[in-house]
UniProtKB/TrEMBL annotation:
GO terms for cellular component: plasma membrane. This is Cell envelope integrity protein CreD. The gene is creD. NCBIfam families: PRK11715.1-1. InterPro entries: Uncharacterised_IM_CreD.
Length: 440
């Protein structure tokens, strides 16, 4: 009796061993990571195009806006002694004086506009502000007692991050006097563009002010807490706001269908810079609070998140495919496994393509039905039996249902996902508990 050659033994192991089939399926799963990564690149590329469309529209309409002010810029003539030359030199330093009290009220009317297939959140904001500024003890605040305050050269800054968005000329009353603004950059502390106005016949003291700005913007609106006490209120018709910035709202935000509101109170000690300072000492542009117009469902983000679960979906489907193959004692060709795998990968491409047109949830339903129907039909042509086909189709329905639940329940996604995987492992253990050791 002749002994089998190593080659024939290995060939028999490949054909009959369950371990070999599991290894084979594992290799196929790893290979499918390549087309899955290509699909993820397509999703990111489509998201990039969407962002480009937003940038093009916002450049013409008005970018995300940051509003702040008013702030006083007061030149001070200071003396610098030179002991070696026994003389003094004089130089001009700009001093920034911020409000003691500043109250904002903003009404944001938001809408979505289309650029091709892309939806862009735009808004028109009407911002009213009022408060007062005390200009006493300016020299003491900066530690210079021998300076001369040049009141006649004082000016007012009103921060507007993108002046293209202005719908009307801003209005500002200083002690009842209307000021006229000119756009220009003034003082790096304010971070770029600002509206500047000169003050006629100004001699210091207390200034009561009130004003308003009507402006267009995209995506978000921020307010600078320039007052020693700053109160802010933003109301909007946007149902899905995100309250952003460096400070949490002072009260629970009101969010409902077609309306939202948030309010803040920020103190001087909260914000990290003084009320009076040299104009080169601080950069305050990014210290703000405000609102962002979030989309209820960002289909690109959701599609990319779902694609990250792709390896799990492919693995569960292939395991089910393999178990059914073992139960019905059927040989499945490598190409047939690959066809099923390509169908699973194509689901994510269908998902992002449909979601650009009809939104994420309807797109997910359509893409999952198409993929499940295609793979179930293909499996039936392989199995030639009803029950195995129903089993695989049910597995796909449960798998896509599991993924959708995890995507919707973001806060408890880990818990739900872990529980469902635990159940799936239990099912696999049940069906593999009686595998003959001879076929291992």
């Amino acid at each position: 009796m002749s002994e089998s050659s190593p080659a024939s033994t290995f060939s028999k192991w490949i054909r009959e061993s369950i371990s070999a089939r599991v290894l084979f399926v594992g290799v196929l799963i790893l290979l499918l990571l390549i087309p899955l990564a290509m699909v993820q690149d397509v999703i990111r590329e489509r998201e990039s195009r969407s962002n480009e469309a937003i940038r093009e529209v916002s450049y013409k309409w008005g970018n995300a806006q940051t509003i702040g002010g008013p702030a006083l810029i007061i030149p001070v003539q200071l003396e610098k002694s030179n002991p070696d030359e026994n003389e003094s030199k004089y130089y001009i330093n700009n001093i920034v004086v911020l409000p003691n009290q500043l109250d904002y009220k903003a009404d944001v009317k938001a809408e979505e506009r289309k650029r091709g297939i892309y939806s862009i959140p735009l808004y028109q904001a009407d911002i009213a502000f009022r408060g007062h500024i005390e200009t006493d003890d300016i020299l003491k605040a900066i530690g210079k007692d021998n300076g001369v305050i040049l009141w006649d050269r004082a000016r007012v800054l009103l921060k507007v991050s993108d002046v293209k968005g202005l719908r009307t000329t801003p209005k500002l009353l200083f002690n009842g006097e209307s000021l006229e603004f000119n756009p220009r950059s003034e003082g790096k502390f304010i971070g770029g563009e600002a509206l500047v106005a000169n003050i006629e016949n100004f001699e210091g003291g207390r200034i009561n002010f009130q004003g308003s700005i009507s402006i267009n913007g995209t995506n978000s609106l921020g307010l600078l807490p320039l007052g020693s006490i700053t109160n802010g209120e933003i109301r909007s018709n946007w149902s899905h706001p995100k309250f952003i910035g460096d400070y949490i709202t002072s009260e629970t935000p009101q969010v409902g269908e077609g309306q939202s509101a948030g309010s803040w109170q920020v103190l001087e000690m909260n914000r990290g810079y003084a009320r009076i300072f040299h104009d080169y000492d601080n950069s305050i542009l990014y210290n703000n609070f405000g609102v962002e117009l979030m989309k209820p469902v960002d289909h690109y983000t959701m599609s990319e998140r779902s694609a990250k679960y792709g390896i799990l979906i492919i693995s569960l489907t292939f395991i089910a495919f393999l178990l059914i193959q073992l139960v019905v004692n059927l040989k499945v060709h490598t190409i047939q496994y690959l066809m099923v795998g390509f169908g699973l990968v194509l689901f994510y491409l269908l998902l992002v393509a449909f979601s650009e047109r009809i939104g994420f949830s309807p797109a997910y339903l359509i893409a999952s039905i198409m993929t499940t129907a295609l793979i179930t039909w293909y499996a039936h042509s392989i199995y030639k039996k009803r029950n195995p086909t129903i089993a695989l189709g049910s597995t796909l329905v449960l798998t896509y249902g599991f993924l959708f639940v995890v995507m919707q329940l973001e806060d408890v996604a880990l818990l739900i996902g872990a529980l469902i995987l635990f159940i799936a492992l239990g099912v696999l253990m049940y069906f593999t508990r009686k595998i003959p050791s001879a076929q291992a």
